[in-house]
Amino acid sequence: MKKFTRVTDIGDLKAAVAEALEVKANRFAYKHLGQDKTLLMLFFNSSLRTRLSTQKAAMNLGMNVMVLDVNQGAWKLETERGVVMDGDKAEHLLEAIPVMASYCDMIGVRTFAGLANKADDYNEKVLNQFIEYAGKPVFSMEAATGHPLQAFADIITIEEHKTKERPKVVLTWAPHPKALPQAVPNSFAEWTVAAGYDVVITHPHGYELDPRFTAGATIEYDQRKAFEGADFIYAKNWSAYADPNYGKILSTDRSWTVDSEKMALTDNAFFMHCLPVRRNMIVTDEVIESPGSIVIPEAANREISAQTVLKRILEGTK
Ligand code: AN0
Ligand code: CP
After folding, report:
1. Ligand nearest to the CA of 141
2. Where are the alpha helices (DSSP H) in the chain?
3. Is the pTM of this model over 0.90?
């Protein structure tokens, strides 16, 4: 595998989940694969889980790991070609990418949507420059339009917990005080549809996601109706995708917060969230602390999705 940004990069999803479960059972069995191989993780944005789980996954595989926080200690990077660099950005991505790539065997990149220019975000302007100019395998650690390592971990978690062959999986929008990208819900929709689940997405009017990611899912504007009979509730906030409101907050309506009363409409559903989560905005204390909340095993599976992806990249570079 040379690139990991979309569900299509992983090939047969059932086979990938089986491989992930095998990795989980024998996580130190592949230590030889990463010997003398170096992973560079590059963060343009904050992270707790992605940083630690991906580094742990690489260590399980015997790799060396370098982490660079671009905004803390490195030169500020210009991403736009053709600009006169007389501002605060001292270095251009076009030099920085091949230089960084020369020190490593693969690069993980976290670069969130700016939410100011929809075309730049949805063309993955930053991530695609890495794919084009690194000359080494590149994987997304959440880029502008997707968070595939999260979605893969979510699928592994659902497969471990489901009691029906084809569970009803509900992605619900929930309120948040800051404008957030659509990356997590895009990938969750794309991967759960690919997994063959009954996928329902519920959100207020105006929060429709890009149909290139949600095709195959049902949109239900009535949150309570969406929750009926659900096996998994996956909460997430996102900002508007549709024009002319791209990147804007249209609602902070706390009647969309996931609470026990709404969970009672489900078929004893598990509660999921990618974390970090704002309690009593997205979900009540009671629901996130309930026995049906699987946010911790979900986060733990980030090590497994990352290790499976790194393992496949290493196998491809041998
Ligand atoms: C980010 C987001 O919504 O994309 C990262 C989630 C994994 N969340 C926040 O910035 C709070
Ligand atoms: N879920 C997730 O990616 O968390 P971090 O932003 O902490 O990496």
Report:
1. 2
2. 13-25, 49-60, 93-102, 118-122, 125-133, 148-161, 183-194, 211-214, 223-227, 260-263, 285-288, 295-317
3. yes
